[in-house]
């Protein structure tokens, strides 16, 4: 059977997606981006990868978040993205904002990890080959390397932009003082940090408490929140047990131990608030992030197009009363 070519929805930009400006830049990003850490690699049927990616793009999600080590297995989310590029996405390349990163262990030996110029440069070249791209829209240092001089990591990012392999650069999970130094260093070289990426959700409030969310905004950088659903905990997924096809059942990055009786009680109470708002727990957890205008985009993971559909409904109600916020705050304390 000959597959008919992919035709994106003609309504993709008139379907309720909101676009927010990334800091002081010319870039607008969708309020929701699609994260490809889990469920987009070789362990997943390509038909489902394709369904989720097409559904996302059809709904106005123009930003796809990858990294060299996403899969599982490492590299295979980028390989699948390359297949999407070849099979369906190529004509729409200029409508897409594609991110990748390097910073975690990727290949053996001393040059396949952390923040050296050697690693970052080689890793991005490999990523571009896997994704069948000439350039990415943003390349991130995936984590701060305490051993490598920060100037070396940052200058490698600057040079990657100068060589045209990335249009913008970003930082992920940098501690506050390293982030402060990096924002200044990059801005002074006219390659300002476009996006700072950190874990942020109802349970993980570190970007607020560390000050990095305020610092990003003051430095002109956009902010993207990852693991907005606490890897699925902040959804209805675990309210009645652990489904076999869930991330928790796989046990790689979300452990069963977090689902204590006390945690279940908090989740049920949050679910009640969501229900009173006419939302699912997932929708409320995502809307809660969007209420803060400093959050440029929320990067959501998914294992089905139906989850993406549910998550997009969060856009319909992202305002909270003071009472709701206070009740959510009380339940978020760890
Ligand atoms: N910079 C970094 O260091 C870093 C670190 C982590 C993540 N990220 C980025 O952020 C993205 C998102 O983070 P994440 O995948 O950890 O977490 P997440 O978005 O908090 O959780 C995604 C998981 O939640 C479940 N889910 C999603 N929507 C749902 C819905 N409507 N109803 C029920 N369950 C739902 C799915 O679990 P099931 O699979 O069980 O169905 C899905 O895989 C990643 O893909 C990656 O791009 C970046």
Automatic annotation (TrEMBL):
GO biological process terms held by the UniProt record: methylglyoxal catabolic process
Highest taxon of the lineage: Bacteria
InterPro entries, A to Z: K_chnl_volt-dep_bsu_KCNAB-rel, NAD(P)_OxRdtase_dom_sf, NADP_OxRdtase_dom
Signal sequence segment: none
Keywords recorded for this protein, A-Z: NADP, Oxidoreductase
Alphabetized GO MF terms: oxidoreductase activity
Domain NADP-dependent oxidoreductase: 33-332
Pfam families noted in UniProt: Aldo_ket_red
UniProt xrefs under Gene3D superfamilies: NADP-dependent oxidoreductase domain
Family designation: Belongs to the shaker potassium channel beta subunit family.
Protein's name in the database: Predicted oxidoreductases (Related to aryl-alcohol dehydrogenases)
Organism in which the protein naturally occurs: Alistipes shahii WAL 8301
């Amino acid at each position: 059977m000959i597959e008919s070519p992919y035709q994106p929805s003609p309504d993709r930009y008139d379907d309720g997606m909101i676009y927010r400006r990334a800091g002081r830049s010319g870039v607008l990003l969708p309020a929701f981006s699609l994260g490809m850490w889990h469920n987009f690699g070789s362990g997943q049927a390509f038909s489902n990868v394709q369904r989720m990616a097409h559904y996302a793009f059809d709904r106005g999600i123009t930003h796809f978040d990858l990294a060299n080590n996403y899969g599982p297995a490492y590299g295979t989310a980028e390989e699948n993205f390359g297949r999407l590029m070849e099979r369906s996405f190529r004509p729409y390349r200029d409508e897409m904002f594609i991110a990748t990163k390097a910073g975690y262990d990727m290949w053996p030996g001393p040059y396949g990890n952390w923040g050296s110029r050697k690693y970052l440069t080689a890793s991005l070249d490999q990523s571009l080959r896997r994704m069948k791209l000439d350039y990415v829209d943003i390349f991130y240092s995936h984590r701060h390397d305490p051993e490598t001089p920060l100037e070396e990591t940052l200058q490698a990012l600057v040079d990657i932009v100068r060589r045209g392999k990335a249009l913008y650069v970003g930082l992920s999970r940098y501690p506050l003082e390293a982030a402060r130094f990096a924002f200044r260093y990059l801005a002074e070289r006219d390659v300002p940090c476009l996006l700072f990426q950190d874990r942020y959700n109802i349970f993980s409030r570190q970007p607020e408490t560390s000050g990095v969310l305020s610092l990003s905004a003051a430095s002109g950088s956009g902010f993207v929140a990852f693991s907005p659903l606490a890897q699925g905990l902040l959804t209805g997924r675990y309210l009645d047990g652990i489904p076999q096809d869930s991330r928790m059942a796989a046990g790689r990055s979300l452990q069963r131990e977090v689902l204590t009786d006390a945690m279940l009680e908090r989740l049920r109470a949050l679910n009640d608030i969501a229900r009173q708002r006419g939302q699912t727990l997932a929708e409320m957890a995502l809307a809660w992030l969007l209420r803060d205008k400093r959050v440029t985009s929320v990067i959501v993971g998914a294992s089905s197009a139906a989850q993406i559909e549910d998550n997009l409904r969060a856009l319909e109600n992202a305002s909270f009363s003071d009472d709701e916020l206070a009740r959510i705050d009380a339940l978020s304390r760890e």
